[in-house]
Amino acid sequence: MSWLQTNNKKRIVILGGGMSGVGAAMLATQRGHDVFLSDGGVLKDAFAKALLDQHIPHETCGHDMEQILNADVVVKSPGIPDTATIVQKILEADIPVISEIEFASRFTDEVEIAITGSNGKTTVTSLIGHILQIADFNVSVGGNIGQSYAAQVAEAPAEYRVLEVSSFQLDGIKTFKPKIAVLLNITPDHLDRYDYKFENYVASKMRIAMNQDEQDYLIYNADDPAIIEALKIYQPKSKLVPFSMQRQLEYGAYIKDQNININLDTNSFTMPIQNLSIKGQHNTANAMAAATTAKLLQIRKETIRQSLASFQGVEHRLEQVLKINKVQYINDSKATNVNATYYALDSMEKPTVWIVGGVDKGNDYSELYALVNKNVKAIVCLGTDNSKIVEAFGSCVDNMVETSSMEDAVRVAYKLAGPGDNVLLSPACASFDLFENYEDRGRQFKNAVRAL
């Protein structure tokens, strides 16, 4: 049992007043701890109201170091890097700094299923949640999507916790130990947070299995060279369960004769790929990961098949918005890195006007060249600085237009697209230059399309 679960009152300081910070503050308050939340900026109205309603002491637009350094433990928002001056001062004072995922996990002994990866984690998290709900499990779904883990633990018990976890959240874990961890892929992303070293980012992702033991499971993508190399280096203790799109496996999940096949000891499962509700090679891999999780939880085969056939997909991930003048508009705002955009462009079967750009995180666009040459007829740049995109793709297409607002980008795309074409928003970049987050970017895209 964690010391946080005991009746020992502790001073908990929370850095950051967003979704995860406010959730952690509510949980800590509910469990009788002395709580103080500090945010260097202005809180959103809903979060400010929640803190006031719960009478939680907090400050905004600055940090009172005397209050902060009086903490027994600091819970840090995933958006604040470890290199931030305030975090360095806390660490120098020998005060533990943990993530909200770690904090919440110390208040529960429920079954945790954690999903990470550079791409696909929201889809797989949502899909596993969907399967468990259809199987009538008592389950909550959240973490890096939807409601924060801490808020969910504060709200109600659940037998199963399905959690999307990002590398930033994993950086702050100490004892977090999921019963089932799912590692989908590791491709360069967020390198600006990892000293531009891919191996640092890989190490962060592998932390999902660091506390697992022989009673736990690590489901992993056996086609991903970075994962295969990392398994040799880090040697997790958990039972390894691979899935592969490329080869047959004696143990794990694989494709044969256009069927998903899963063999776990004496337990087998098959389902035709054509029956999956979500299409594309990457989604077949996502479905394999989710179905393997369900098999480990001993959910009935028919329930798994029914769930995989009825899942509606995720907002902002290859979301079909509208067809106007025989042009299909597609919202893939969640593609915040090159690899995610690779999947999007690869799934385009018609000439595509591609809206791309935002905050570059050290992107290497070269892996997209072949797909752009094959599938993209025009590029619309959307960002405050488009120079890297112009340089990368200027010679790939005849038409490239720079824009600095979503309305402009959609209007330009409308003019460039002809009957039978696609207009695809798949930015390959973070959104913070022009938008609050990728959700805001996706909704602005949908609103602009509807206003045409």
TrEMBL record:
The keyword NAD does not apply. ATP binds at G117, S118, N119, G120, K121, T122, T123. Its EC number is 6.3.2.9. Keywords: ATP-binding, Cell cycle, Cell division, Cell shape, Cell wall biogenesis/degradation, Cytoplasm, Ligase, Membrane, Nucleotide-binding, Peptidoglycan synthesis, Transmembrane, Transmembrane helix. Residues 115-293 form the Mur ligase central domain. Pfam families: Mur_ligase_C, Mur_ligase_M, MurD-like_N. Pathway: Cell wall biogenesis; peptidoglycan biosynthesis. It catalyses: UDP-N-acetyl-alpha-D-muramoyl-L-alanine + D-glutamate + ATP = UDP-N-acetyl-alpha-D-muramoyl-L-alanyl-D-glutamate + ADP + phosphate + H(+). Its main location: cytoplasm. GO terms for molecular function: ATP binding; UDP-N-acetylmuramoylalanine-D-glutamate ligase activity. One of its GO terms (cellular component) is cytoplasm. Belongs to the MurCDEF family. Cell wall formation. Catalyzes the addition of glutamate to the nucleotide precursor UDP-N-acetylmuramoyl-L-alanine (UMA). This is UDP-N-acetylmuramoylalanine--D-glutamate ligase. The gene is murD.
